[in-house]
Amino acid sequence: MKDLEVSENEQNSICVAGAGAIGIALAAKFSLAGYDVALVARGESLAAIRKDGVVLCDLDGSHRADVKVGDARDFGWQRIIFFCPKSHDLPGLASNVGSLINADTLIVPVINGIPWWFFDRLDDNGSHPVIEAVDPGGTLKTMLPTSQVIGTTAMITAERLRPGVSVTFNKLHMTIGELDDRRTERLEMLERILSSSGVETRIASCIRDAVWTKVARNLISNPVTALTGATLSQNFGDPYLSDISRRMLDEIAPVVEAYGSKLELEPANIIASGRGMGAVKTSMLQDLQNGRRLELASICDAVLELAKRKNMRMPVTETITLLAHFRDNDRNAAA
């Protein structure tokens, strides 16, 4: 796909697909910055947002914003789409909004874990393996062409209080990058949109380094807190829990290196930054407490799948993952 050439009017139109905590936060930020926002929602979220708009409670107070909201059928094709679902919900959402995407649509997935595009656009040898844990059978590759994708990681600690209302506990940070690590006009355009909306944004020199760093942060905190009920400050402040997380971090680091990447932070700094997040619940702990499916496939299973491809063992990570799957299945059985 060539660099995106957009008029001023086209730049002012943004679609957000998914009305969870992060989708609401981004839709509100874009709208408050003056962008024309189309928010794809359904069910109780659709009804609530049609009635009251979206509300973001952040460090600066409470903000209400009006957005166009509806099912994908209510909108035409979109120039830019931010996908903001749980990672396991992405295939269903991508299928639902397929009519909004054409050959010129810029696709910005804001998701946790190892992304389906991980092996794409790394080189020209045409070898683009599928990661079965996150894209069984390669369906996402078909629905969301990676030539149109901008890679992202997001440091957005958010919680949906009720339909249409999101609270964030820190400043919103995003890292973005082309999958082949080129610096392009469309990438710089996206950086301007995010920055002008109050999202602190960095263009990565190597997007996979940023992805691995975020994956490592999630891997060593989300499943552990789902098992223990600990907040981030407890997870990284308690000597027993922090020891488990540090062992998991020591296991993922050589896997990262085996795939030609590196963590952007030293292990001690990753632990310290997690401890400094305060009494915040991870998204996986929130999901468990609210009876929702856990994001184990992209955060845990995909990492173990990649490690296995390199004949590398991650015994502590594997044990924590199995226990977290038990908790997830136990939740399903009790439902």
Walk me through what this model shows.
- This protein is an alpha/beta fold and 335 residues long.
- Helix 8 (222-228) runs parallel beside helix 12 and helix 8 (222-228) packs across helix 14 (315-334).
- The model is unreliable at 1-11 (pLDDT under 50).
- It is built from 14 helices and twelve strands.
- Strands 5-2-1-6-7 form a five-stranded parallel β-sheet, with helices on both faces. Strands 4-3-10-9 form a four-stranded mixed β-sheet.
| Biggest pleated-sheet summary | 5 strands, parallel
- Per DSSP, the total helix count is 14
Instruction: Find the structural class using helix and strand composition.
Output: alpha/beta
Count of β-strands: 12
Low-confidence stretches: 1-11
Order of helices and strands: HEHEHEEEEHEHEEEEHEHHHHHHHH
Task: Report mean pLDDT, rounded to a whole number.
Answer: 92
Helix content: 40-55%
Q: Please tell me what the overall shape is.
A: globular
The rounded Rg comes to 19 Å
Subunit organisation of the chains: single chain
Strand order of the largest sheet: 5-2-1-6-7
**What distance lies between the first and last C-alpha atoms, to the nearest angstrom?**
45 Å
| Beta fraction | 15-25%
